[in-house]
C-alpha cells in the first residue's frame, strides 16, 4: 500500500519559511494552501507569456475550464481507480431548518459539522486536460490533421505538505495534442526539446528524465512499471526544495489511445485518436526562479529579466 504523504526535508521547510519571510507566500493555516504576493503572480504571468511566445506558431485552440468539473466525468475517467488519494469532491449543506440548527449547535460545541454535508455533482479538477476529452468528443469526429489545444486551470490534489513545491491548489498550463500516434508523439518530442531549451534559457538547472505517475496501491506499482517501460511519461526536473530530489516542473505525457477509447474520440473513418500533453507547473516554475535567482526580481540576471520582462 502506498504511503499517503512524504515528510518534507528540513531544507524544504526552510525554503518555505524563507518564502513566508520574504512575503512571497502567505500562511493560511493549511499546508499547501497559500496566499501569493503580487510579484509572485507577476513572475507567473511573465513565464506564461514566455510559454505563449514559444508556442505561438503552433496554432492551438485556447480553452479554459473552471477548477471544478462534473463528478461523472472524473468517475468515468478512471482517476479514482488510479489516484483515490489525490481526489477532492465538493460537498455542500442540503438539509432543512432542523438540520441547520444541528449544524449551528455542532459549530458552537466545536464538533465536526461536516457529517451534515453531502457530495455535490462537482469535483475539483485534478489536471487541466481532464474536462477537454469529453468536450471535444461531443463535437464530432476529428479532422485528419487532428487538433491542438492550449489549456489552463487551477488544479487540486490532496497531498498536504510543507514542501512549497507540493501545493494542494496550483495552476497548470497544458498543451494537448489529439491525432494519430505519429502526430502526437512528434508533438511530444517537439516540446521535450523546446521545454528544456526554454527552462535552460531562464538560467535554471534542469534535466529531463523518465517518470511515472503516483498510482495507488499494489496494482499501481505494475501500472507505474508499465508506464516507465513504455516511455509514456517524461518530466523536466529542477532543484527547488531539494537538490537530491529535484521537482518535476514540466511533464510530457503520451496517453496512447486511452482517452480516445474512453470518450469516443475518433477520426471520420472511425480510427481512435491518440493523445499527448505537455504540462507546465506554474507555481513550481516560479518557485524554481526564486530559489535560484533570489527573492528580489530586480537583482535577477539581466538575461533572465530580458526574457521574462521582454
Automatic annotation (TrEMBL):
<dbReference type="InterPro" id="IPR045864">
    <property type="entry name" value="aa-tRNA-synth_II/BPL/LPL"/>
</dbReference>
<protein>
    <submittedName>
        <fullName>Seryl-tRNA synthetase</fullName>
    </submittedName>
</protein>
